[in-house]
Amino acid sequence: MFLAERLSNVDGKLMYQQKLSTLWDNIQYNNLKKEGSVNFPAGKKPEKLLSNIIELSTNPGDIVMNFFGGSGSTAATAMKMRRRFITIEQISSQIRLIKKRLQNVIHGDNHGVSNEVNWQGGGSFVYAELMEKNMGYLKDLENATTIDELNSVYQRMKQGADYDFRIDLSKYENDPERKSMSLEDQKELLIKMLNKNQLYFNEDNIDDADVRDLISDSDYQFNKSFYGKGNA
Prior knowledge:
By secondary structure, the protein is mainly alpha-helical.
């Protein structure tokens, strides 16, 4: 820290600001490539930083919630500190990093805070994906390479997609200018029609007749167990 950042003007006098704690002084930010054995150095947070935060706010056995999984630093640290955790990630490449990193932790990864907390390996985790709803149509639209493929996806959308409430399908179908639009323009128009709040099925829909038929018995029982609504 520069000296100017440690000075504070109090009644016209420059005063030194005193640290309230040295809790954060032993965190190293310059050697992250070795932590976790996954190649994602730019956005990694040091396990020591995360362990301080987890230590301050939780007890062993508590659940650490992490909405942006990244390279799995928070999940890995939580596991080593014997906390349960839920970590969420949408980007496929990041999901692969997280799964690899947690497998390394289970097998006794000795980086980060492992020595400090005497981590010897063990533990487990469950990996699950959300069940696609509009997300399936979105992927098919993005992957369509011809107008015929695009129209085929649209016909399926008419049977089960959730649309933006402002969409008028008849107006779309009867638009005389639509047929002269390029593939990319038509694709963009159809993507805009989808309700982005319904990309995945909600857990509360699991017992709906039209949803239950789409789920295997094992997946159904897993969901009931995961959400604490069953005996599986």
